[in-house]
Amino acid sequence: MSMRKTIAVGMVVVALLAVVAQADSQAISLSVRVHRDQEKFTEYPYSDGDLSYMAAWEVHSEEALIQLGADICPKFKDNDAVDYAASPVLNLIFKDRVFRGGLGVLSTYEQGDDSKWMDIYWQFLLGLSFDLPAKLSIDIYAIYPFKDWSSLGDFATKDIEYSAGLAYHF
Q: What separation, in Å, do the N-terminal and C-terminal C-alpha atoms of the chain show?
């Protein structure tokens, strides 16, 4: 692992531990994500309009949350070689009133003709969270997945994906 990756992983671990140490609530969330075909991230198995569904456990502090989830795509529109895909997801999301922004790390297992695990990749998240009665919230995110940090200069707005979800806080 390169020094840059080691430093990045170390910073994420420290931030995660800080959130857990200051946790004041938890949540269970369910969300749906609309995927986009990624122009520069050619290993990405999703195409425009593919839907995936995530169930996640969240640990909240006043300033941030950690989201640990499993994302499942049961059907692909344009990829008959893959039966389904499953992705463990770890997001660190910072909070400011209704605004959310963070970074996630994930990998995807593709089950099909050539079953395999993808290399670890990253995602930026930017969104809004609206509290509802009965300890519920609606969360809406724009998500930008990318393979490695050197590819960030290839950012294209058409590669942004979207998700919406419902969380129950306890």
A: 38
CATH of the domain at 48: 2.40.160.20
Q: Which residues pair with 22 in a beta bridge?
A: none
| Per-residue buried b or exposed e for 108-143, using 16+ beta carbons within 10 Å of the residue's own CB | bebeeeeeeebeebbbbbebebeeeeeeebebbbeb
**Which pLDDT tens digit goes with each residue over 1-39?**
677 767 777 777 777 777 777 788 999 999 999 999 988
What pLDDT is attached to residue 45?
87
Tally of structural domains, the chain: 1
Angstrom distances, CA of residue 139 to CA of 111, 123, 162: 29, 16, 11
Q: Where does the pLDDT of residue 151 fall: very low under 50, low under 70, confident under 90, or very high at 90 and above?
A: confident
Tokens of 69: 């989830």
CB 93 within 8 A of CB 65: yes
What is the pLDDT at residue 5?
67
| Residue in 71, 154, 163 with CA at minimum distance from that of residue 126 | 163
* Residue 78 lies in domain: 3-169
Residue 159 CA to residue 39 CA, distance in Å, equals: 7
